[in-house]
Each structure stands twice: as C-alpha cells, then as structure tokens.
Give the backbone structure.
Amino acid sequence: ELEEEEQAINVTEEDDTTVLSSLSTSTSFSVSASTSQSSSTTTTSTTAFVSQEKCFQLVDPSFPHDIRCDVRCGGLSHYFREEVYDYRRQCQCFCQDTKKRYRLMPKFFIIGAQKSGSTALFGYFLAHPDFVPPRAKELHFFDFAFGSPMGGGSPQLSFFHSFPTIGKTTDRTFTGDATPAYILNATSARLMHQAFPDTRLVAILRNPTSRSFSEHKMKVRRVERTLDLEDTEVRDKLTSSALDCFKLKDADTLKMYECLYFNVTELKSFSHTVMNRQAALPFLRCLNALYKGKTWDDESILECFGENYIRREKVLSIERVFFREVDMIDASMSLIEGADIPKSSPCYNAKRNRNLRIVSRSTLEQLGREPTLEEYDKMQREGKVHTALSEKCLRDPESALFLKFDHTKFWPWGSNSDIAFDFVYRSVFAHQIKEYVDRFGDNLLVLAQEELLNEQNSTMTRVFEHVGVPPVDVSALSSDDLKSMIDLGWPSFEESSGWSYKSSDHKDDPWLKKEMCKFFISHNIRLKQELPQIASFIDSWNSCNKKKRRR
C-alpha cells in the first residue's frame, strides 16, 4: 500500500507548478495566494476572482504543520442555470505538502446514514466524467481515524494522500468523501466545520426500523466471514505471512508490527476479524516475541492467531439488542423544561411515574449478569442507575414534542462505525442530524432513501447541483450497472464491510418489526420537525402494519 502510495504521489515540483500555473492563468480559473507562500503572486482575469476563504484548517494544534491549503474558485459558471449558480459551489480546495506536491481536496461529504443508501449515492458519482474517487470508499478522517497511522506522519497527511494529485486533474475535476459514520457524533460535525466550513454535505436517511434490521444483517454477514483456523488455505497464508516478516534482520518492534499487520490483513477473513490496529496488538506482540526468541514453528505461529490473542466478535439476536437499547434510549428521554403539557397527556404527571430502572452497558458488562434488587438500590444511590418516564408518555405521538433526547447518559461520544451494537440508537436520527443542520445550514442536503430508489435521475440532478458540478444523466444505469461501478471503484469494499447492494427483508420477524416501528414513531415526529423537507417520507415510516403477537 505504501509503495502504491509513493507511486501515486510521484509528481515532481515542476509538474505541479506547471499544472497549477495553467489553472491560474485560465480565463475561468484563478489561484489565490497560499498562506504559506506569501511571496507568490496571484493571476486573475476579467471573469475570475480570488477567494478569501480557507479550507482544511488544522483541526488540532498538536498536529504537525505538514499540509497547507487554500481555496481557488471559478471555472464552472457556464454549466449552470443562472438561478442555481453560487460562486462558492465552484470553489475547489487544494493542498500542498512539504515537498510541494499538490492534491485536490474533497468538494463534498456524504455523512450518513449507515445502511440508508450512502454507498449507492456515492456510486452514482462514479458515472460523472469529472469525478475522481478517493482511494477508499470510507476515509473516516473525522471520526475514529484521528490517530496517527502506524507508519508515522500526521492524520492530515494520511487524509491528503487519499485524494488525486493535481497533475491528474483539470479545473473541472472534483472528488469527495462518503463516510456514513460521520453523522453519528457531534465531534465529527465540529471538526468538519472547522476544517471545511464552506463544504457541501449530503445525508440520506432511511426508515429507522428497516435500517436497524439491515445493519444487524450486515453485522451477521461480516462475522460469518471471520478467520477460520481450520481452513488449510488460511493456515498456510497466516504462517507464510509471519515467516516472510521473520526474514527481516534486526527489525525493531514497530517495523515488525508494520510488516506483520500489512501482510496478514491481505487475507480478507482476517480483516473481518480484526477491524483495527488496536485489536491487532495482542497477536502482534505474540508473533514479535517468537521473532525475538528466534524459535518458532507453524503451530506456535498459529497459536498467536487463536482465541487467546484475537477476540472473535459475537452478534446478539436482534430482539435482545432491540429491547436492551430501547431501555437505554427511554432512560435518555426527559421532558422539555417549561413545556406546556396538557392534562390529557400521559406525560402530564410523568415526573411522578419514573418507575423503569436502567443500568448502563458498562456496569452490566462489569457485573456479568442482571443485578439483584439490593444491587439496584445500591447502584441507584451511587448514580449508576437511571430511571425512565412511563412507557405511555414515551410512546404517545401527541406528546412527542414535549420530550428531548439526552445522548450523554449512555452515548456521551455518540457512536461509531463499529457495528457491534447501537443498531437502534443509530436509527434515532433527530439529534444526530441537528448537529449538522445547526453548523452547515443550507449547505446540507438531506434525502430520503425512497427518493434515490424511485427517482434516481432527478434526485441525482439535485445532488450534483447542490455539490456544484454539472449534472449528468444516470437514468439508464441499472442496479447491476451501479454495483459493477462500485465493485470497480472500490474492489474490496463489499467483501471487507459485509455490505450488500441487495438485501431481502422477507425473513424479518413481523411482530418485532411492528414493535420497533411503534418505538420509533415519537422519535420520527421530532425528526419531522427538524427536517420538514422530507416530512411525507417520515410519515410513511410511521405506518406500522398490524401483526398479531407471537405466541
């Protein structure tokens, strides 16, 4: 990967300067002076202008100052009808590293939601002749990928290397980032706004019940593909990967870790089992100890990949997950202070009826079982137990707007893309999307999944225009065509993530779906208040089909 990256950025300073100069002297494109190059001059024309905006600001003062960026605008106005033209949409963010190599930064971000059509939405961009995809479908820069990569260097540099070099672009080329986990926490929204305050965002939302079921199925598919040490091919690959690294002479710990990690993660079933470097540390330490001891054989190597060193993921049943998370979300609901609640509402005397006691997930994991009544009382005195409003109050549609959701009780940092849990929480969209609405305003376009499914061409025209690029006709693209483009653009994405373009829901438990639908009604009503532009779709999500309770 590192060798491929070096080839990808092998653009000389002279090449970059020539390309940048040709862009800046174009009659429709100009280059503003970089803050890091105060002595440089700016070339303008009668139809171009210099933007005073900045992009990709340092989001943490502790990061190395190895990337410098600025915005250059113009070049696309003739593509747009006058009423939709907005000069800020035509601005591009370019960045330069310490070796004076330029790259194009993302023009837009698809921020979510998971299992709602974000991959298909991003896939349609592959049909645009001016779009150049990033090296991965999901970059995760603004959520959990904030730590420095194992090989050293800053997160900005890693993000910088994910996009095309300027030598491979024109004044119309654009790129983007589609990481649906961005919607899941307020920190991502803050950091993104700090780094790209004028960027364009797109979010696509789905019926919460269907989304939760779909995500649980994706988790099951991912776990089913995990490492099988009984498979001869797997065993041979693991041992040969380790032995290749053991041939290194006098390798220090970091170098050995890098060799082992990158060698072994080429095995797809391994990447499904060990999802990040932190989870890989136990088996890396085990193998490194063998290397330092200079005594190993196939069995000792394979032992490092066993249960003692690699934790296998387990998936709880969707019913068990649902009821546990519902309790936690219910305990996170409270009445809005000063709300004028009528006496007819079941929430009128709600403060007297906080009779449901909830224990946090971490406390339950430490205890290893459900607490006794005595333990409940003790934990309540210690502040480890939360009470909830009555179910009648929480589920009453007429009272939905008297309630607010406080994610800090159980999800103080939001959630992330590790879909081991939070299947239900990630479908409570209202408080998630509010962070982006408040910060980005009209720069955020929110779609319902049904719009992309039923009106793909007109919907994508809206998306292209919102992003600020010439619309292209995608009406002729079938679902198979779209999947083929996604497979070609990001070959390993489906296999590594558990994602599936087509997923049937005919085996879903109808009774449980109805219960989940009823649970989401009040949350959807608050979402409708936040997003009136997709109100009709939200109303349809609240139509719960009547099913008989299972015996």
Observations:
- The chain is about 40% helix and 10% strand.
